[in-house]
């Protein structure tokens, strides 16, 4: 697994080995190459801090959000901005969903910290996207459609699901219960040269 070259905002540079990513300017998001819709999944990310040269003349402080996202989230927005993505941010370690910040972590995240992200989704019947909404079937898979849907699906809760985080190996506990059903991808949003 690595960072996707397809599910990424144009302001993010993914490293050649796909294990690193740097952003510039405002928030932008990249998803991993593989996702999961059931089971228990975990990944770690080490925040290296500022990683790119700014193209603007104004100096921006680097920031990061780490978590899980479906492809229904827009890549030009930070994860946690909607009900299809869940995040923890570096500034104050708040957890974020539907653009609401909720106190969570014990301290801010600094360069050099390793953030662990755990996702648990119970096995459930899968609901495939159907093209019975008047669009040609192939339109469901056009590049970019799934990251900015005009008519997103009605969110369905996956009962018993959970997302939790750790910081430098120390569990921070469960951040989110009963997440929205979907295929979740490791995701990171970068700001100001992170």
From TrEMBL:
SMART domains: SPRY. GO terms for biological process: methylation. Residues 1-172 form the B30.2/SPRY domain. InterPro entries: ASH2, B30.2/SPRY, B30.2/SPRY_sf, ConA-like_dom_sf, SPRY_dom. The keyword Plastid does not apply. GO terms for cellular component: Set1C/COMPASS complex. Its main location: nucleus. GO terms for molecular function: methyltransferase activity; transcription cis-regulatory region binding. Gene3D superfamilies: 2.60.120.920. It comes from the Eukaryota. It is found in: Nucleus. Keywords: Methyltransferase, Nucleus, Transferase. This is Set1/Ash2 histone methyltransferase complex subunit ASH2. It comes from Perkinsus olseni (Perkinsus atlanticus). The lineage of its organism: Eukaryota, Sar, Alveolata, Perkinsozoa, Perkinsea.
């Amino acid at each position: 697994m690595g960072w996707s070259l397809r599910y990424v905002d144009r302001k993010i540079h993914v490293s050649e080995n796909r294990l690193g990513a740097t952003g510039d300017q405002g928030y932008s998001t990249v998803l991993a190459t593989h996702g999961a819709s059931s089971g228990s999944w975990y990944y770690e990310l080490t925040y290296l801090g500022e990683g790119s040269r700014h193209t603007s003349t104004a100096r921006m402080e680097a920031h990061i959000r780490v978590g899980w996202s479906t492809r229904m989230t827009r890549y030009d927005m930070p994860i946690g901005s909607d009900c299809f993505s869940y995040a923890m941010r570096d500034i104050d370690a708040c957890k974020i969903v539907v653009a609401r910040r909720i106190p969570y972590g014990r301290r801010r995240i600094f360069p050099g910290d390793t953030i662990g992200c755990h996702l648990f989704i119970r096995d459930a019947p899968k609901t495939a996207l159907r093209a019975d909404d008047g669009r040609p079937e192939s339109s469901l898979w056009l590049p970019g459609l799934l990251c900015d849907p005009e008519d997103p699906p009605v969110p369905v809760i996956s009962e018993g699901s959970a997302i939790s985080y750790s910081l430098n190996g120390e569990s921070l506990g469960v951040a989110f219960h009963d997440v929205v059903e979907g295929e979740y991808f490791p995701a990171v949003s970068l700001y100001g040269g992170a």
